[in-house]
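User: Show me sequence and structure for the first protein, then do the same for the second.

Assistant: Starting with the first protein.
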Amino acid sequence: MKELIAKKYVKALAEAFDLEMLEQVEELLEALAEALKDPKISVVLHAPEISKEKKAEILNAAVAKANMKQLENFIRLLVEHDRIDVIEDIATVLRKYIADIKKSYVGKVYSDTQIDSKVLDQLGSGLSKKFDSTIALQFVQSDFDGIKVDVEDLGVEISFSKSRISKQIVEHILKAI
């Protein structure tokens, strides 16, 4: 539900800002979303005894350095309609929207063994050609027995499990005998 609401707000932002400004807005909204995860800040912004004007003032103070009047008005609108909780979803949807426009995505490679940066670059290059985009991959140490590549914004997930490959090889050998 929040994602549907966020998409409407992102559409409005896309109409109000050019791509360069949208990237700045996305960074600011990501920072706000991160700040809202702090329980102290969240309690203050969700307190019923604090007026909506004061809440908007607090949030706008966080983005004041950007000097974007439209963004300040946008935040006032969110506060006025009790949509503070949607800021994180708006930032996520906006990040995906910008990635789709630029055809530039960030993915993660999960494995239980360290993967060299050259291998990550080669994987990213191969995926970039396959999907006609720019894909940068980051390594994440995990307990996954194999390699899993996940480019969430593009909707791509590829995994190779060591145990599954071993099992398939054994099955193939047994069928050949």
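Switching to the second protein now.
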Amino acid sequence: MRTKPTSHTIARARRLRLHATEYEKRLWWKLRELKKLGYHFRRQVPFRSYFLDFVEHGARMVIELDGAQHGQAEHRERDAVRDAILKGEGYRVLRYWNAEIAENIDGVVEAVVRTLSERPPTRTATPSDLPTRGR
């Protein structure tokens, strides 16, 4: 059974969103464009004792961006535990290095869309999801 996030947890998630890395900001803008395909990503989502970078609950997908510190043994072990917990909950975890975002963000987004197509969204896009012109 899931518990309701505390005010401290909500405040921390808001701080993480406010102080997003440049790579998170870049990917966030690209993921928002997928709304027209019926996908709804959220960012810095509290999940158990973790904060997930990006989540699409309908397709049960998590996207994590990793900096250089994730190459260290202790971080790899923690990431493996976290990924196993998420997989146990039915989520597919995609991990990308910050350098991949910097060098080939369009390729990353294409890979995300391919993976999403394996699990269709739980809702379809509405006219309000489509980008507006001139605003």
